[in-house]
Design goal:
The chain is mainly α and about 100 residues long. It has helices at about 1-20, 20-30, 35-40, 45-50, 55-70, 80-85, 90-105. The two termini are about 20 Å apart.
Length: about 100
Amino acid sequence: DVAIAIQKGLLKSQEWAKEDPDRYFRMTSEQSGNPLEVVLETANYDIDDSHPMNLDDRYINSLKNILKFLQDYDLTSGEVDFDSWVDDSVIEQAKGEYSIEKKAE
């Protein structure tokens, strides 16, 4: 239940960021301590792309590439079994519940 509630909160915050990306980037600047110019220089206005709420192949492959980089440069000797680690059922349940709640508003 807690994991689903957290995911629904993330969905709501993602929606909020889409409504007013400039407000989101200003808040990011304030909270991170980075100048707004720096935040905007690296900003991705495609909120879905910059904050994915899924575990699609692109995201998983990105994680695998990060692990490979760390291993190639002897920054870790660890392994991650991504296939057994990935379980999108919580995200999918949260999306379903959040969608129903949004329709009820």
